[in-house]
Amino acid sequence: MIAAMGEPTDPQPTVVVPVFNDWAALEKLAAGVAAATAGGPAPRLVIVDDGSSEPGPDLEALARTGLAGEVLRLHRNLGHQGAIAVGLCHAVARGDGGTMAAMDGDGEDRPEDLPALLAAVGGEPQRIVVAERARRHAPLGFRLFYQLYSLVFRLLTGQHLGFGNFCALGPAAARRIVHMPEVTVHLAATLLSARLPIRRLSMDRGPRYDGRSKMSFVALTGHGLRSIAVFGEAVLTRIVIAAFWVAAFGALVLLVVFLMKLGGMASPGWTTTVAGVVITVVVQTVVVSLLGLLLIMRGRRAETQDPAMLAKSMIQRIDRFGPPP
Q1: Kind and range of the H or E run holding 84
Q2: Which end of the chain is more exposed for a tag (fewer CB within 10 A), N or C?
Q3: Res 2: pLDDT
Q4: Under DSSP, is residue 15 helix (H, G, I), strand (E, B) or coil?
Q5: E strand map for the chain
Q6: What sign for the dihedral angle of Cα 172, 75, 227, 164?
């Protein structure tokens, strides 16, 4: 594609959107993306039908927005993280070489923020740009739970998350991400672990199109735990270090108990009981932590499944809409 002055322009950006049954929200999102990008290059949509049980979407309605794209029909439900991974792998395999973005289709990732996110990549092929949430339209209980989760995540991983699926990737960053097995588990945590430059843009979270979340508390908790699992090796290393601090404290307690015994300040049998409890706790903590760390390291070495191969096997068919590229 050549500009009027003879200089090459940026390739068409691609936006990956996972959807499970919520086709009405998708049509609103597509219209919003079309309106938000009307003054610049129109992105190509890669919509991932995550094994929906309801028919859709209306391809003619999507085409009327003026956008073009594809609907990837998956053989089964993978969950939104797996669906995003399939969409990114498919987009990279197309070889368009443009900036890629991922966003949820429920309205919380606002279409009007998409141009700023894409522009912030700034032609840097290895740059990642994420939407860090400034304000959320969520109940107080959810916000308190999220703050607790953020604290636990930082303590266990040493990293600050603060963002979700809404992101933009330079072409080189996208190529790296789709070859990381962790991307099928948790996209945001994978971006943190990719060791690429990340730029954070403060963006409000929009209200859902239908006003309610389809994820249960259990599903949200599992999603949070999966983000920590991406950093399993680092987490267990921190736990091992903490275990040795526990061991050092246990040794100090044993020393105090022994001195009390020598000084005649301990009642009969008390010293043996305390020493036994402390030794048991210390040994179990250290052994379990070391075994967990060794298992994680062994699992890392055994990782062979490339997400790109998973994507090929999970796509049942592809429906296209809008003008051809």
Answers
A1: helix 80-94
A2: N
A3: 36
A4: strand
A5: 14-19, 44-49, 68-74, 100-102, 128-133, 163-169, 198-203, 315-321
A6: positive
Mean pLDDT estimate for the chain? 83
The sheet that has 68-74: what strands, in order across it? 198-203, 128-133, 163-169, 100-102, 14-19, 44-49, 68-74, 315-321
Single-letter code of the amino acid located at 183: V
What six digits make up the tokens of 72? 């990837």
> Contact, 130 vs 187, CB < 8 A?
no
Contacts with 142 (C-beta within 8 Å, 6 or more apart), sequence order: 136, 220
Count Cβ atoms within 10 A of the Cβ of residue 30 and give its class: 0-12 exposed, 13-18 middle, 19 or more buried. buried
Q: What is the pLDDT of residues 253-299, one digit of tens each?
A: 777 777 776 776 656 666 667 667 767 776 766 666 656 655 555 45
The pTM assigned to this predicted structure is: 0.80
Q: Token digits for 223?
A: 């999603």
pLDDT tens digit sequence for 207-234: 888 766 666 667 777 788 788 888 877 8
DSSP-assigned states of every residue in 148-202: HHHHHHHHHHS----EEEEEEE-HHHHHHHTT-GGGGT-HHHHHHHT-S-EEEEE
Distance of alpha carbon 201 from alpha carbon 117, whole angstroms:
8
